[in-house]
Amino acid sequence: MSNRAAEEFARLVDIVASLNGPDGCPWDREQTIDSLKPFVLEETYEVLDAIDRHDHAAVCEELGDFLFEAVFLAQLEAAAGRFVLADSLKTVADKLVRRHPHVFARDSGEPKIDTPGQVRARWEEIKAEERLGQEEPKTLLSGIAPTTPALLRAYHIGVRAKSVGFDWAHAGQVVDKIEEEVGELREVVEAGGALDHARAEEEMGDLLFSIANLARKLGVEPETALRKANGKFTTRFTAMERAIAASGRAMRDLSLDELEREWQRVKSGQQAD
Q1: C-alpha–C-alpha distance, residues 43 and 63, integer Å
Q2: How far apart are CA 131 and CA 138, in angstroms?
C-alpha cells in the first residue's frame, strides 16, 4: 500500500510540475498562493460534505482534489525558492513523531497513555514546550488561524485554554453561563427605543462563544453539528416548499400558521420514515 501511494503521489507531483512548466497550462502558470486560497477552501468543504454524507466514493475523489491543492501550493513555493514539498512532508512527519512519544519513544520514560483525553493533553503540553523553544515564542492562542470559521475557532480556543486549566469544571456551569448570556441579550432586545446594534452584536458573540464551549464540554464539534443542522433544515424546508407547490399554492401567500402546519407535517413524515 505504501509503495503504491508513493508512486501515485510522485506521479501527481510530476503532473503538477508539468502543468506549471514552460509548456504547461496557461491558467496554472498564472496562479499564485493567494489566488489558490478560494480553491483550497472549496476543496476543504467538499471533503467535509462528503464525510457528512458518508459517501466514501466522494471522500476518495475529494481527498485527491484536496491533495492536488496542497501539491500545487508547494510547487509555487518551490518555484519561488522558499521550500520544496519534501520540506513540508518532513515537517509534518517529524511533528507527528515528536508529539506521539507514547508511540515512537516508549523507552524514553514517557508516562503511559491509555485514553484519547490523555493523548490530547500531552499533545498540548508538547506544543507548549515547542513554543518555549522558539526565538519568538507564540502565545497559547496565536497558533489558531484567524481565518478558521468563527465557531470552530471558538471551540479550539476553549481547547487551548483548557490545556492550562482555564475551563469550567463541568458542562452544567457552561449551561449557566449560556443562560446568563441569553438574559443579557434579552435585555438588549426588550430595551425601549432603537436597538443597540453594537451591544446586540457583543452579547450575541458572547452567547455563541459559550455555546461553542458547551459543545466542547459535551464532546461535540460545533462546526459539524451546525453543518448537520443546516442540512436538516434545508431538507425539510425544501420538502415543505415542494409540497406547497404541488398543492397549487405559493409559500408567500400562506400565513405563518399555515406554514407552521406544513412544516410540522413534513417533519412528522420524515420522522416516521
Answers
A1: 8
A2: 6
CATH number of the domain to which 73 belongs:
1.10.287.1080
Return the residue matching grid coordinates 420522522: 271
In a domain, 145, yes or no: no
- Local confidence band at 242 (pLDDT 50, 70, 90 cut-offs): very high
Range from 100-109, 149-158, 166-175 carrying the lowest mean pLDDT: 100-109
Q: Which one of 113-122, 123-132, 155-164, 239-248 scores highest in mean pLDDT?
A: 239-248
Residues 6+ apart with CB under 8 A from 36: 69, 72, 73, 76
Q: How many CA atoms lie within 13 A of 264 on its CB side?
A: 6
**179, part of any domain:** yes
Determine the residue type at 3: N
What is the spatial distance between Cα 162 and Cα 121, in angstroms, rounded to a whole number?
9
- Domain final position from 72, 98, 124: 98
- DSSP class per residue in 11-26: HHHHHHHHHTSTTS-H
Given a contact cutoff of 8 angstroms between Cβ atoms, the answer to whether 240 and 256 are in contact is no
Gyration radius of the chain's alpha carbons? 25
CA atoms of 134 and 124, how far apart (whole Å): 16
Q: Name the residue among 106, 89, 105 with its Cα closest to residue 97.
A: 105
Total domains in the fold of the chain: 4
